[in-house]
């Protein structure tokens, strides 16, 4: 009954920016870590940014200084501001969250992905 829905992916030119959003819904008691992953065509999914429940954030070296993760717990939403985009940032971006549901169950949930395409 828990869903994660991403939005904000688009086609942009190199140097452009996007703001990705991921909203969680359902029978949620609490959300712990929230993360953004990406998967480029023919490559493995990689972790690009993560943020703890207390707000501590960290990033993959490839995106440090260009991507910013944030969360708004009242809206059960995590954001990824992506700036100075490069063609190598082209990928499907996935949201992941560690969630405790109303019945006390702890599980990992994934969104369906949002596509980011960066042209040179």
Blueprint (SSEs and pairs):
Blueprint: E1 3-7, E2 11-13, E3 18-25, E4 28-39, E5 46-51, E6 57-59, E7 67-72, E8 77-82, E9 91-101, E10 106-110, E11 114-119
Parallel strand pairs: 2-11
Antiparallel strand pairs: 1-3, 3-8, 4-5, 4-9, 5-6, 7-8, 9-10, 9-11
Keywords, please?
mainly beta; 120 residues; single chain; 0% helix; elongated; 4-stranded antiparallel beta sheet; 7-stranded mixed beta sheet
Provide structural commentary.
This protein has 120 residues and is mainly β. Helix content is 0%, strand content 59%. The protein contains no helices and eleven strands. Strands 2, 4, 5, 6, 9, 10 and 11 form a seven-stranded mixed sheet that branches. A hairpin with a 6-residue loop joins strand 4 (28-39) and strand 5 (46-51). 30% of the residues are buried. The model has no long low-confidence stretch (mean pLDDT 97).
Query: Mean pLDDT, nearest integer?
Result: 97
Strand content: over 45%
Radius of gyration: 14 Å
Shape label: elongated
Low-confidence segments, given as residue ranges, are none
H/I helix tally: 0
Main sheet specs: 7 strands, mixed
Question: Would you count the extended β strands for me?
Answer: 11
Query: In terms of structural class, how would the helical and strand content be classed?
Result: mainly beta
Can you give the helix content as a percent range? under 10%
- Give me the oligomer status: single chain
Secondary-structure element string: EEEEEEEEEEE
* Straight-line N-to-C gap: 40 Å
Summarize it.
This protein is an all-beta fold and 120 residues long. It has strands spanning 3-7, 11-13, 18-25, 28-39, 46-51, 57-59, 67-72, 77-82, 91-101, 106-110, 114-119.
């Amino acid at each position: 009954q828990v869903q994660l829905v991403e939005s904000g992916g688009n086609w942009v030119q190199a140097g452009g920016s996007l703001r990705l959003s991921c909203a969680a819904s359902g029978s949620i008691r609490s959300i712990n870590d929230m993360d953004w992953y990406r998967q480029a065509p023919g490559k493995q999914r990689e972790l690009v940014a993560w943020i703890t429940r207390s707000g501590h954030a960290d990033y993959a070296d490839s995106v440090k200084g260009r991507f910013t993760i944030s969360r708004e717990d009242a809206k059960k939403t995590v954001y990824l501001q992506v700036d100075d985009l490069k063609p190598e940032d082209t990928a499907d971006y996935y949201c992941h969250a560690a969630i405790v549901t109303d019945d006390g169950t702890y599980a990992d949930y994934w969104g369906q992905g949002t596509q980011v395409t960066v042209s040179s």
